[in-house]
Structure formats: C-alpha cells, structure tokens
Amino acid sequence: MEKAANTLEKINAWRKNTMVEHLGIELTEVGEGYLCGKMPVDHRTHQPMGLLHGGASVALAETLGSIGAQLQVDQSKYACVGLEINANHIKGVRSGFVYGKATAQHLGRTTQVWEIRITNEAEELVCLSRITMAVIEKK
User: What is the pTM of this model?
Assistant: First the structure.
C-alpha cells in the first residue's frame, strides 16, 4: 500500500471543524508507526468534579489511534474506522496538558491494533488505551 506524504501541518488541518479541534487536541509528532499529540485539561475536558473526563482521554486516544492508522494506508483507496477501544484510567489530572503517544502493535491488511499511552506533565501514566481499527476499501 502506498502511503501519502503526511506532515504535521497536513494532519493537523484534518482537525478543522471537528470534535478534535473543539477539545484543543493538537498533533505534535509523527513517525514510523507512531503519532503523538497533546490535549489541554480545562473546562472543555473536565468532568463535574474538576478532573480530566475519562471520555476526553478516550477521545484523545481514539484521535491518535485513528489518525495513526489512516497514515499507514493508501488514503486514496482505504479508510480506517474504529472497531473497539478500551481505556484504563490510572491517575487524575486537574490542569495543564496531557500527552498521548499512539504506537502501532499490529498493521495488518484488514485490521490494525494501536496502543495509546497518555501521560501528565510529570510523565506519569494517566490512561492506557488500545484501539482496534478496521481497514476498509473506499467505494
């Protein structure tokens, strides 16, 4: 499968007018088999007790895993869509940023599996997630 040349500028442009942009998620690094990003912990991502909402962590994880998967395929022929995601919430965060790194664990012809580690500013584990992606042919 031929992969398109993907720059941070190009993939950050994919955020426009999406939940990713609304939550303030920014993609920060792309490499062979991985993608990194950050998300603010503020009023957009808090739950009522003032902590990072678990769903916001999952949104960051799904964003990184989904875009990471899409970067592995010929984008003119294939799309990657989520089949399953899970998340273990390890540590609470009240402010600042959280940082995610999605790493490919399996890059198959029809499925991909990505692990996403989300850490706080002290590099402590906040959330550990795994997403399974389906690679489907565009019609």
Answer: 0.94
Q: Is 29 labeled as catalytic in the residue annotation?
A: no
Candidates 32, 62, 121, 124; catalytic one: 62
Please compute the mean of the pLDDT values over residues 62-71 and round it to a whole number. 98
Q: How far is CA 15 from CA 10, 23, 67, in A?
A: 10, 10, 10
Read off the pLDDT of residues 19-50 as tens digits, 9 standing for 90 and up.
999 999 999 999 999 999 999 999 999 999 99
Domain ranges within the chain, ordered by starting residue: 8-137
**8-137: which CATH architecture?**
Roll (3.10)
CA nearest to 116, candidates 18, 56, 16, 34: 34
